[in-house]
Specification:
By secondary structure, the protein is of the alpha/beta class. It has 2 domains: 19-361, no CATH class; 393-514, no CATH class. Helices cover 60% and strands 6% of the residues. It contains 23 helices and 5 strands. The protein has helices spanning 14-36, 44-53, 66-78, 82-106, 111-122, 125-130, 136-157, 162-176, 181-192, 203-226, 229-241, 247-258, 263-275, 283-299, 311-329, 334-353, 359-369, 385-388, 393-405, 409-412, 422-435, 446-451, 467-471, and strands at residues 415-419, 440-442, 459-463, 474-483, 495-503. It has a 5-stranded mixed beta sheet with strand order 2-1-3-5-4. α9 (181-192) crosses α14 (283-299), α13 crosses α14 (283-299) and α19 (393-405) packs across α21.
C-alpha cells in the first residue's frame, strides 16, 4: 500500500496525562515544601524583583517587565512572604515537567518515554535550582519549552497556523527576558539548514514574527525613551561580571547543571533528531539544540543556565528514541538501569539544587564534592553563589538600623541610606518601614533611574562606599560600623558603614558619575 507521507505519531492517552500531571504536582511540592519549612532566606535578586513589582513600568535596566508584573499580581493577594513569591516559579517548573512529557508523546513515545523525559527535568539540579526562587529565569525556561512544543507540532503535523501561537509565545518570552533571541537565532539556523526551510514561505510564520515584535514594542519604546539602558547593562555584564570559562569546563558545567546521568538521554535525542530515519521530520530540533550548545561553549560564558530551556526537548526526543530502541531489541533492562542511575545521581546532587542542608553541612558538602562552578567575578563563599546570596540579609539590615538609631534625633530626621546593590537596597526597603528606617538610595541598575532625581542627602549613612569618594562630596566622613557575615558572598562581608555630613556638592549633581549598570 502506497503512503504519501510519514506515519502519524500516536496521540497520548488520558491516563498518561494524569500521571504527568501528578509528576508536575510532585515537582511543585518538592520546590515549595523546603521553603515552607524554613530553608534559607530571600535570594538577592528576589529583593530586587519585589522592588520592581512595586514600581511597575514597561521596562527595567536589566530585564523586561513581565516577571515584576507577575510578581505584583501574586503579591496583591498572597503577600510577599518567601512561600508566596516562590509559588509562581514552582508552578512554572511543574508546567515544564508536564510539557516535557507531552513532547515525548508527540515525538512517538508511550508512557515510559513520557515518564523518563519528565523525570529528567525533575532530577536535574539546575532545574531544581531555577524553579526554586523567583526570577525571570524560571519563566524563560517554560517559555522556551512551550515554543519547542509548538515547533514539534508544526514539524509533525504541518499545521502552519501554529506559527501564530509560536509568535505570541516568543513575544511574551521577549517581554520576560531578552535572551530568548538566542532561541530565535538558533531556530532560524535550524530552518535554513534543514528541509524545514520551506517554512519561510509560509505567510503565518511572518505573521508570528510581526506579533512577537508587536508584543515587545512597549519595552522597545521604553528603552528608547530611557536611553537604551539594557544595551549598556548587557555590555557591562559581559565585560565585568561573567567569568571566562574554557570549553572543557563549559561542557562540564552543562553536565553538572543537567545531572550527568541524563547525558545518555539528551545525547540520544540529539543523534535521533539529526540522523535517525524516524526523526527525519524533526531534524530542525537537533540543529536548533546543536547551534545553541555550540554557541554556549564557544561564548565561554560562566552562566551554564543560558540554554537550559533547550534541554527538555532533547530529553523528550531521547526518551522516545531509547524507548523505541529498547522495544526493537527487547532490552528491557535499559530503562530501569538508566532510571536507577539518574535517581541515585539526583540524590547525590540534591543539596546543590535544593535548600535541604544546614549551611555548615552544605559548606562541607561543597568542599568535598568540589564541582560547584563560580558564576561571577569577585564573588566567593563557602557555599554556591545561588545559596550564599540567600544568607545574612536580616543581620545586614539590623546593623544599619543600629547605626541609624545611634544618631542624634536631629541627624536621624535628615538621614538617607545609601546601599551598594539592588539586593541591599531592596532588603532595606522591605524591612525598613517596620524598623523606622529612612529613605534608601542606590546607584545599581534600575535603582539608579529611580533615585536620579532624589539622591541629595544632607546626612548619608553609606554602606560599602569608599571613604575617599565620600570626602569629595561631604566635609565630614566617619566610620560607624561594619557589615559582618560568614556564609554570604565575600563582597557583602566586611563592608564599612560610613556617616557622611555637610555636603559640599549635592549628591544628585554627581549621580550620573556613579551609575552602576551590571
Amino acid at each position: 500500500m502506497d503512503r504519501s507521507g510519514p506515519e502519524p505519531i500516536p496521540r497520548p492517552d488520558r491516563s498518561g496525562n494524569v500521571i504527568l500531571l501528578s509528576l508536575s504536582v510532585a515537582f511543585v511540592l518538592l520546590e515549595v515544601i523546603p521553603t515552607a519549612l524554613g530553608g534559607y532566606g530571600y535570594f538577592i535578586d528576589e529583593w530586587y524583583y519585589i522592588a520592581c513589582a512595586n514600581r511597575l513600568a514597561f521596562g527595567f535596566v536589566d530585564h523586561p517587565p513581565l516577571a515584576p508584573l507577575l510578581l505584583k499580581l501574586m503579591m496583591s493577594f498572597a503577600g510577599s512572604s518567601l512561600v508566596a513569591i516562590r509559588i509562581l516559579p514552582a508552578l512554572a517548573g511543574g508546567a515544564t515537567v508536564y510539557v516535557t512529557g507531552r513532547m515525548a508523546a508527540d515525538l512517538g513515545g508511550t508512557l515510559i518515554a513520557r515518564l523518563l523525559a519528565a523525570g529528567a527535568v525533575i532530577i536535574a539540579p539546575g532545574f531544581l535550582l531555577m524553579f526554586g526562587f523567583f526570577s525571570m529565569n524560571a519563566f524563560e525556561i517554560l517559555l522556551w519549552v512551550l515554543c519547542s512544543w509548538v515547533l514539534i507540532r508544526i514539524l509533525r503535523d504541518g499545521d502552519t497556523r501554529l506559527w501564530i501561537l509560536f509568535g505570541v509565545l516568543f513575544g511574551v518570552g521577549l517581554e520576560n527576558k531578552h535572551t530568548i533571541v538566542l532561541f530565535g537565532a538558533g531556530l532560524a539556523a535550524a530552518l535554513i539548514l534543514t528541509p524545514a526551510r520551506s517554512q519561510f514561505r509560509e505567510r503565518r510564520l511572518w505573521l508570528g514574527v510581526a506579533l512577537a515584535a508587536a508584543i515587545l514594542l512597549p519595552n522597545i519604546l521604553w528603552q528608547a525613551y530611557s536611553g537604551w539602558p539594557s544595551l549598556e547593562f548587557y555590555a557591562n555584564q559581559m565585560a565585568f561580571k561573567n567569568i571566562t570559562t574554557p570549553p572543557l569546563k563549559g561542557i562540564f558545567n552543562q553536565l553538572f547543571l543537567l545531572n550527568p546521568a541524563t547525558l545518555p538521554l539528551w545525547l540520544c535525542g540529539l543523534v535521533w533528531s539529526l540522523r535517525a530515519e524516524e526523526g527525519n521530520r524533526f531534524r530542525a530540533l537537533g540543529v536548533l539544540f546543536a547551534a545553541l550548545f555550540i554557541f554556549q561553549i564557544a561564548s565561554q560564558s560562566s552562566r551554564p543556565d543560558r540554554i537550559a530551556g533547550a534541554y527538555p526537548v532533547m530529553f523528550a526526543a531521547g526518551a522516545a528514541a531509547i524507548e523505541s530502541f529498547v522495544r526493537r531489541r527487547q532490552w528491557r533492562w535499559v530503562v530501569p538501569a538508566l532510571s536507577t542511575v539518574m535517581i541515585l545521581c539526583a540524590i547525590a546532587l540534591a543539596p546543590v539544587g535544593l535548600p535541604v542542608l544546614a549551611p555548615e553541612a552544605l559548606a562541607g558538602y561543597c568542599s568535598a564534592v568540589g564541582v560547584v562552578p563560580r558564576l561571577e567575578r569577585g564573588k566567593t563563599s563557602p557555599l554556591p553563589q545561588w545559596f550564599a546570596d540567600r544568607f545574612e540579609w536580616e543581620s545586614f539590615v539590623y546593623t544599619v538600623r543600629d547605626v541609624f538609631e545611634a544618631l542624634p534625633p536631629a541627624l536621624r530626621d535628615r538621614a538617607v541610606i545609601f546601599a551598594p546593590s539592588y539586593g541591599h537596597a531592596g532588603s532595606l526597603e522591605y524591612y525598613g518601614p517596620s524598623l523606622g528606617l529612612p529613605r534608601v538610595i542606590c546607584n545599581h541598575n534600575s535603582y539608579y533611574l529611580w533615585c536620579a532625581d532624589k539622591a541629595d542627602a544632607e546626612v548619608l549613612i553609606a554602606v560599602g562606599a569608599r571613604a575617599a569618594d565620600l570626602r569629595t562630596i561631604y566635609r565630614q566622613v566617619d566610620s560607624v560600623g561594619v557589615i559582618r557575615g560568614t556564609y554570604g558572598m565575600s563582597w557583602r562581608n566586611n563592608m564599612t558603614v560610613y556617616l557622611a555630613q555637610g555636603p559640599t556638592t549635592p549628591l544628585g549633581a554627581v549621580w550620573n558619575r556613579i551609575k552602576h549598570f551590571e
